[in-house]
Amino acid sequence: MKNLVIHQVPYRKISYDRGIDHERHQVTYIGHPHRMADLPEELPCERITLDADEDLVAGVCARTSPADRYEKVLALSEFGITEAWHVRRHLGIEGPALDSLERVRDKVRMKEALVGSGLRHPRFVSDPAPCRPLPWEGPTVLKPRQGASSEDVTIHETARAALSAYHRLPDREMFQLEEYIDGDILHADGLVADGRLVDLAVSRYVNKPVEYASGVPLGSHQEPCTPAHRALAAQVVAALGIEEGSLHLEFFETPEGELVFLEVANRVGGAAVVTTHELHTGVHLPSHEIAVRLGLERPATEPPTGRHHGWLAFPGHHLAEDGVRETEVPQWVRAHPCVDRIHTLAPEQLTPRHITYQEWEVPVFIEASDPDPARLRRFLQDCTRAVSVTTRPTKTVSKTGTKTDSTREPAA
Question: Where are the beta strands (DSSP E) in 98-172?
Fold first, then answer.
């Protein structure tokens, strides 16, 4: 089989070689330079590198044609799902319809698809009238219709304040307003094949993704998947018409125990979701997704550990750029029986200015596990208070020749 892979997700997150036999199949990777650089040198494949600032779809279409006789186009990034539709159309390859792909990318389209399904979701407005209030009054979320990692998401105390912020946006047609739902946020990760769930695990966040954007640590840990969790995921798959691939579903659990849909993505979750899912279930989601999408036999699974697994990331995107980063991980954390691995950046390693959950890019990343999910949660919560990541002002020389501290607040 001849496959074209639009390479956007770090190779180490997907491990394409676990899902595709590169000796048996012809594989061409295409992508921007920074991503193509992470392909293993020994990987037997063809490589096509786009220009650094080149439009993805235009670049792929300019370098490929139907005469290449590709049989499948594989795009596993959230930011390549609809783009791959245009590439398939260019190459004359069948695939999912554009409207079905937009339902898992556009947060307005996905909630519109749930209307009449019986699933509760936040009330929302995508194009508010200029002089009309929102149909609710309390806390309100303003977020991009298409986005990830809670970038550009803001929470306002009242609907009126959120509406005012919306009207001040220069690109407000790219945003939506949504009522705030009080409760814990959980995520369900699994696999869909032929329109049905064939694998699922559920995790509960420690802190909230939107808080991570402002510098608060974020993590999650697995807990038992209940019939209600599975029913919710199955209803979302059916209502949105998801036919195949990985599922990353986020939902609320209110103080009253009600499950409320938040959003869904037709791709693997970030941070350590792939690793923890495989440890807990034996299923390596990316390679199983590749097999499903390419019509290949799914790989064998590994024996589950019998433990619940979790992770905790301490961000660095918000830290002062010209300060010296200082990280403190207490010895009791390092020696705790729940700890599986702790990743830390060396002081000289720069943290990206964009939001990232990658363990090799954040100042501190903890992987942990325990047979008891409640005990694991307590440990991760304790870590959010015990581990610190700050910046120390650098010394600068004034015009008088004296050394002074640059003025900035340490970032937590």
Answer: 124-125, 140-144, 154-156
> Both 330 and 245 in a single domain?
yes
- List C-alpha distances in Å: 131 to 134, 184, 221, 314: 10, 34, 44, 42
Whole-angstrom CA distances from 166 to 27, 99, 109, 140 are: 45, 26, 19, 11
Which residue range is the domain that position 142 belongs to?
Answer: 123-179
Residue with tokens 């974020």: 218
Clarify whether residues 352 and 239 are in a common domain.
Answer: yes
209 Cβ contact list (under 8 Å, min separation 6): 149, 150, 185, 218, 250
- Are 218 and 135 within one domain? no
Q: Which residues pair with 367 in a beta bridge?
A: 311, 341
Encode pLDDT of 99-120 as tens digits: 999 999 999 999 999 999 999 9
Which region, left, alpha or beta, applies to residue 194 given φ > 0 means left and ψ of -120 to 50 means alpha? Answer: left
pLDDT in tens, 355-388: 999 999 999 999 999 999 999 999 999 999 999 9
356 Cβ contact partners less than 8 Å away, ≥ 6 residues apart? 149, 315, 317, 362
Domain assignment of residue 235, yes or no: yes
Return the structure tokens found at 161.
């304040």
Q: Return the exposure string of 361-378: e unless at least 16 CB atoms fall within 10 Å of the residue's CB, then b.
A: bbbbbbbbbbeebeebbe
**Total domains present in the chain:** 3
CATH number, domain with residue 57: 3.40.50.20
Q: Domain boundary residue among 47, 78, 95?
A: 95
Contact 72, 1 (CB under 8 A): yes
